[in-house]
C-alpha cells in the first residue's frame, strides 16, 4: 500500500528560497483522511455546501424560467418597476449575502483543517 504524502510548509515561508530552506514536514494523507476530525470537517463542509449550492441554483434559474415561460413577473411592483426587476435586484443581494456567508464558513473550515494538521504534527494518537 502506497502512502500518499503531503508536504506542508509554514505560511511564513513566502518565497522559494525560504521554502527550500525550510524543513518540510511530511503528513500522510491516508492517516488524516481516516481521522474522526477530518471526517467531521468533510461532513460539515458537505452539510454547508450542498444546501447553499441548491438554493443558489434554484434562485438563479428561477428568474429566466419565470420570465421566459410565465407572465407572473410582468406585473408592476412599485410604480413602473416590475417584479422581474425586483427579482433581478434580489439576485445581487442574494449573491453578496451568500459570498459573505461562504467566506466566513471557509475561514472556519480552514481553521479546522489547520487544527487537524497541527494535531497530527504534535503526534496526536487519535489521527
Helix and strand arrangement:
Layout: E1 5-8, H1 16-21, E2 25-28, H2 29-33, H3 36-69, E3 76-78, E4 81-82, H4 83-121
Antiparallel strand pairs: 1-2, 3-4
Helix pairs in contact: 3-4
Characterization of the model:
The chain is mainly α and 127 residues long. The protein is 66% helix and 10% strand. It contains four helices and four strands; from the N terminus they run βαβααββα. It has helices spanning 16-21, 29-33, 36-69, 83-121, and strands at 5-8, 25-28, 76-78, 81-82. The strands form two sheets. It has a two-stranded antiparallel sheet with strand order 1-2. It has a two-stranded antiparallel sheet with strand order 3-4. Strand 3 (76-78) and strand 4 form a beta hairpin. The longest helix is centred in the C-terminal third of the chain and has 39 residues, at 83-121. It is elongated. The two termini are 18 Å apart. The chain crosses the membrane at residues 48-69, 81-103. InterPro entries: DUF485 (IPR007436). Keywords: Membrane, Transmembrane, Transmembrane helix. It holds the Pfam family DUF485.
Quick take:
With 127 residues, this protein is mainly alpha-helical.
Index terms:
two-stranded antiparallel sheet; 66% helix; 4 helices; 127 residues; mainly alpha
Number of helices: 4
The percent range for strand residues is 5-15%
Tell me the radius of gyration. Answer: 23 Å
The shape is: elongated
Describe the largest sheet: 2 strands, antiparallel
Give the tally of β-strands. 4
Mean pLDDT: 82
Strands of the biggest beta sheet: in what spatial order?
1-2
Order of helices and strands: EHEHHEEH
Q: What is the CA-CA span between the terminal residues? A: 18 Å
Unreliable parts: 19-24
Oligomer: single chain
Helix content: 55-70%
User: Strand pairing plus helix content: what structural class?
Assistant: mainly alpha
Keywords: Membrane, Transmembrane, Transmembrane helix
InterPro entries: DUF485
